[in-house]
Design a protein that fits this description.
The chain is α/β, with parallel strands linked by helices. The protein folds into six domains: 122 residues, Tetrapyrrole methylase, N-terminal domain (Cobalt-precorrin-4 Transmethylase, domain 1), CATH 3.40.1010; 106 residues, Tetrapyrrole methylase, C-terminal domain (Methyltransferase, Cobalt-precorrin-4 Transmethylase, Domain 2), CATH 3.30.950; 74 residues, Helix Hairpins; 31 residues, no CATH class; 65 residues, Orthogonal Bundle (Helix Hairpins); 49 residues, no CATH class. 54% of the residues lie in helices and 9% in strands. It is built from 22 helices and ten strands. A five-stranded parallel sheet has the order 3-2-4-1-5, with helices on both faces. The chain has a five-stranded mixed sheet with strand order 6-7-10-8-9. The chain is elongated and about 110 Å long. It starts with 8 loop residues before the first strand and ends with a helix. The relative contact order is 0.05. It holds the Pfam family TP_methylase. Keywords: Coiled coil. GO terms for molecular function: methyltransferase activity; nucleoside triphosphate diphosphatase activity. InterPro entries: 4pyrrol_Mease, 4pyrrol_Methylase_sf, 4pyrrole_Mease_sub1, MazG-like_dom, NTP-PPase_MazG-like_C, NTP-PPase_MazG-like_N, NTP_PyrPHydrolase_MazG, Tetrapyrrole_Mease/MazG_pred.
Length: 509
C-alpha cells in the first residue's frame, strides 16, 4: 500500500452516517492507519459508520472521547477537554482525529483543535466529509441559503448566559441546532430557546439524517423537547421562524415596528407626522418616568418605562433615517465606540487602582476627543457642555462642582450659611417683581450650594420633599373623606391638627 503523508493531526470527516457517504480520501486515510496499526481517535463512536468500518477494516484501532460526555458536568469545558487531549497526543506522534459529518461544519471541537494547534505549533490537515446539513435539509425540504438559516452548536447554546441568547439567535429566521446529543443537553437547549420562543412553538427533531431507514423527523412543541429520550448523537433540532411581530424580546422587532408605524402610506398617521422637535417633550416625560420608577424601586414599572424611553431612541432614529440624517446603526456605533474608547482599563492595556482614576482617565479622554474634533480646549470654559435643558437645580450643582476645581469655593459651612442668610435678607428687601425673581433665584442657587457642601444631591432632595408632601397631603384628603368634610371647610388650627394626624398615620405604616 502506498503511504499517505499524515500531518501531526489529520482531521477526518465521517459524513452524516452512511458508509456510502464516506469520501474516498477518508477511506484511504483510515485504511492507511489500519495498515500502520495506528490508533485512530474518534470524537464519538456513536455513529452508524463505525461498525461497518470495523468490519471493513478489522485491524483499525479505535479510541473515542465518549467517556467525557458522561464525565463532564460543564458543557463549556467538554470540547475544550477533547481538543487539549488531541493536541497533547499530537505532540507525541502524528494522529488521526475523526468526527461526524464535515470537520468544519457544526464541529466546535475541531475549531478548538485548530486554535490550539496553531498556538502549539502543530500542523493540521482536513479531510472533508459530507456534512449533516445536506441530508437534514433534504428531509426538511429546506434550502438553508435561500432562507438564511442560522446554524449553532447545541453545546454553545447551552452554555450561553440567558441574557446572551437573544444576541446569538434571531428567531425571525430559521434555526438549526446541531449535536443535540442527549436528553440533558436537550433540556439546556429548551431553556435557552425559551428566551426567544413561546413554549408551545412547534419544532422538529431530525434524527439520523442520511442513514436510510433510521431517518426520522419528530415534530413537537418546544416544551416537550426534553420530555423524551429522542435526542442522540445524530440529532439536529430545526426551529421554524416566528412572525416578525411575535419576537417581542428582540431589539430588531422594535426596529421593525417603528419603521412600520412611519411607513407611507399604510403606517400610523400620528407617528408619520412626528418630527425631532415634536418628540422632544416625550423624551423628557419618559426620562422622568424612568426616574420615578427608580425612586419607587418598582422593577416591573422600571422595565416598562425603560422600554418607553428606548422607543424614543428608535423613533428619533427612524425620523432621521427617513430624512437621510443618520440611522440606528450610527447610534449604536457612536455609543459602542465611545464606551470602548473611554474604558481602556477594560478593553485596552491601561491599569487603574480605583474609580477616581477611572474618572480622571474619562475626563482626559473626553478632552482628547474634543481636541480631535477641532475644539480649542485651551480656551474652553469649565462651565461649557452643561445641557441647559437639564433641571435648574442640577445645572446649579454642576456649575458649583466644576468651579470648585478652580479653587472657587467657600472655606467653611458657616460661610455658606452666612451667604444663605444674606440672600434671604435681600429677598425681604426686594421692591419689585423683577427683583424678587432675581433674588429668589439667588437663594435657590445658594440652597443648591449648601446641598453640595453637605454632599447632598439637591434635585434628589427636592424630589424627596415633593414625594413626602404628596404622601402627606393625600393622607389628609383621605382623613377628610372619612370625616365627610371638604378640605375647604377646615380652619387653620384644624389644618394643623389634620397635618399632624397625616404625619402620624404615615409614620405608623
Amino acid at each position: 500500500m502506498t503511504a499517505i503523508p499524515v500531518s501531526a493531526i489529520t482531521i477526518v470527516g465521517l459524513g452524516p452516517g452512511s458508509m456510502d457517504d464516506l469520501t474516498l480520501e477518508a477511506r484511504r486515510v483510515l485504511a492507511q492507519a489500519a495498515h500502520d496499526k495506528q490508533t485512530v481517535y474518534f470524537r464519538t463512536i456513536i455513529h452508524p459508520t463505525v461498525e461497518p468500518l470495523k468490519q471493513d477494516l478489522p485491524e483499525l484501532r479505535i479510541e473515542s472521547f465518549d467517556r467525557l460526555y458522561d464525565e463532564s458536568d460543564d458543557w463549556s469545558s467538554l470540547y475544550q477537554q477533547i481538543a487539549t487531549e488531541v493536541c497533547d497526543l499530537a505532540l507525541q506522534h502524528p494522529i488521526v482525529y475523526v468526527v461526524p459529518g464535515h470537520p468544519l461544519v457544526g464541529e466546535t471541537s475541531v475549531q478548538l483543535v485548530l486554535e490550539q494547534a496553531r498556538k502549539r505549533g502543530i500542523t493540521t490537515r482536513i479531510v472533508s466529509g459530507l456534512s449533516f446539513i445536506e441530508p437534514v435539509c433534504n428531509l426538511l425540504a429546506l434550502d438553508p441559503f435561500e432562507v438564511g438559516a442560522q446554524i449553532i452548536d447545541a453545546t454553545n447554546l447551552a452554555i450561553s448566559h440567558i441574557d446572551e441568547v437573544a444576541g446569538k439567535i434571531i428567531p425571525t429566521i430559521p434555526l438549526m441546532i446541531v449535536q443535540v446529543y442527549n436528553r440533558r443537553l436537550a433540556s439546556e437547549v429548551k431553556l435557552a430557546l425559551g428566551e426567544c420562543y413561546p413554549d408551545e412553538w412547534p419544532v422538529k427533531l431530525v434524527r439520523a439524517a442520511g442513514v436510510g431507514e433510521e431517518e426520522a423527523v419528530l415534530e413537537m412543541p418546544l416544551y416537550e423537547l426534553d420530555r423524551n429520550n429522542f435526542a442522540n448523537h445524530l440529532s439536529t433540532l430545526y426551529v421554524p421562524p416566528v412572525p416578525e411581530l411575535s419576537a417581542l424580546r428582540l431589539p430588531e422587532t422594535l426596529r421593525y415596528i417603528t419603521m412600520r408605524l412611519r411607513r407611507e402610506p399604510d403606517g400610523c398617521p400620528w407617528d408619520r407626522q412626528q418630527t425631532h422637535d415634536s418628540l422632544k417633550r416625550y423624551v423628557i416625560e419618559e426620562t422622568y418616568e424612568v426616574v420615578e420608577a427608580l425612586e419607587e424601586n418598582d422593577m416591573d414599572k422600571l422595565a416598562e418605562e425603560l422600554g418607553d424611553l428606548l422607543l424614543q431612541v428608535y423613533l428619533h432614529s427612524e425620523v432621521a433615517r427617513q430624512a437621510d440624517e443618520f440611522t440606528l446603526g450610527d447610534v449604536y456605533e457612536h455609543v459602542n465606540a465611545k464606551l470602548i474608547r473611554r474604558h481602556p482599563h477594560v478593553f485596552g492595556t491601561v491599569e487603574v487602582d480605583n474609580s477616581s482614576q477611572v474618572v480622571q482617565n474619562w475626563e482626559a479622554i473626553k478632552k482628547q476627543e474634543r481636541a480631535s474634533a477641532g475644539v480649542d480646549v485651551h480656551n474652553e470654559s469649565v462651565l461649557d457642555r452643561v445641557p441647559q435643558a437639564t433641571p435648574a437645580l442640577m445645572v446649579a450643582q454642576e456649575y458649583q462642582k466644576r468651579v470648585i476645581k478652580t479653587g472657587f469655593e467657600f472655606t467653611s459651612l458657616q460661610d455658606v450659611y452666612a451667604k444663605l442668610e444674606e440672600e434671604l435678607e435681600e429677598i425681604k428687601q426686594a421692591a419689585s417683581p423683577e427683583e424678587q425673581l432675581e433674588e429668589i433665584g439667588d437663594l435657590l442657587f445658594m440652597v443648591a450650594k449648601l446641598a453640595g457642601f453637605l454632599k447632598v444631591d439637591a434635585e434628589e432632595a427636592l424630589r424627596l420633599a415633593n414625594r413626602k408632601f404628596r404622601r402627606r397631603f393625600q393622607t389628609m384628603e383621605s382623613l377628610a373623606r372619612e370625616e365627610e368634610r371638604p378640605l375647604t371647610s377646615y380652619s387653620r388650627p384644624e389644618w394643623e391638627k389634620l397635618w399632624a394626624r397625616a404625619k402620624e398615620a404615615i409614620a405608623s405604616n
